[in-house]
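Quick one: structure for this chain?
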Amino acid sequence: MPRIRPALAVLCGLYLAATLYRAATRPFWYDELFTFHLVKLGSLEKIQQAVAAGLDLNPPLLYLGTGLAQVLFGAGELGTRMPAVAGFLVLIVCVYSFLARRLPEDYALLAAGLVAVSGACEYSYEARSYGMVLGWTGLAMVAWQRRRALPLSLAVAGALLSHCYALLLLPPLLAGQFVRSLSERRAEARLWAALLAGSSAALAYLPLVRQAYAARLAGPIFDPSPLRLLGTYLDLAVPALPAVVLSLAAIAATGRLDAAGLRHRLAWLGDRIPPAERVLLAVLLCAPVMAFVLAAAGRGGYFTRYGLGAAVAGASLFAILCALLAGGDWKGARWLPWITIGWFAAQFVWQARLPAQAPAASPTIQAWLRRADEFLVVADGQTFFELNHYLDRTAASRLVFLRDRESALRYMRTDCYDSPMPLLGRWFGMPGKVVEARDFLSRHRRFLLYGLSRPEHQWILTRMKEESATVRILADEPRRRLVEVVQSAAEGDASGSPENGLKSVPESYTSTPSARFSAFTTR
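Got it. Here's what it folds into:
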């Protein structure tokens, strides 16, 4: 095992300080709230029942790891995110260890630093499976490289029991092992058996795969497209671009890019890095492409986070490129890791200037809370869940979500944000009311509507405009909007009769622009 360099210790320490701060101060968002509340159910049996009911699509290791972390670090934002924090730290160390076996340690440190400044680092403080999967990925790479069968099997199983899309870890390992078996002319049956045994963990969540295919993950948010695939690579690479450019500039300034030197270093690298490891990294770089193909073939959703392994491969291949350009004997290589460390610190300082804010803390919601007799219709499931979590129960009981599967499928092409909402009260004790849209709209001519403003996240605003309702903006936030909706007389009952204990919006509150804008702030 290579000795621990000061730069690695500084990188890990800085990563922990920055990521723990982010994990502790950033409010939960929609996806994370499912992790938090499922773990609160207390037993794996109840969690599995809730998952089977349609509340999530993750294998059990996420909930087991999060439950343990909450016992050790508390049940708040920090404790709930600790598995991701720890998993990404393991990845950083494993990337260093994987490359330090083949390259001078400065280049291995460069790769580890690039992983930390890549777009993948965003998932190191998210209470979902992605940080854990990346940690298992790093462990699997190191175990495979060192031909450790049992650790390899456990790492593969750990990844597959953390997230369904961890299946994308298998093609790089299988391709690398196939090339190694061919080049060395020996089968290494124990490693093949380890990969097979670890892969068998996927059988545990076949029901989740069927459930995911039945979830209608369609629409602009989910549809795989070539532009979204390109966007994945940009999302992962662009945050690291300044460190990449500075590293290349430092190498170019040395004048070591002559043709004869490059040929010599190419032969040197060919001897140091086995073909199997090059193949593993090349296939891992294609993780977003594999995720794209799976999503397109299975009519499922596609997200950048399903192909995070590409950041690991990209950082490693760039470090190999730098070693090719500069050579193993370049003394200036010692400064390359510090470029990435400096950029990581700059990223953190810049991001810390703009702390994240939960919807419940927005000026719009705070103004609404002061009007104790008003209910609020929430346009989208994401905002409804977040407000239910962060508001006190009395305030949250005044929230209303309109359920209409037909409208969701018509206007959004998916009901994945609508279908879990009726389950929140049953499983998580959420006090917000979920009512049938048809009944509500027939009884309430005027109402306040708050939520994400983009049409792919909610259907009701598009439908109201289509039905010629009057929609007036009361408050405009960067991502969300509060509007007053007044239906035509044919659509709603002008009397505003209460239903389910809800009180309709008074005329004095919504009739004039001055009244509307005096009650709410747009900043």
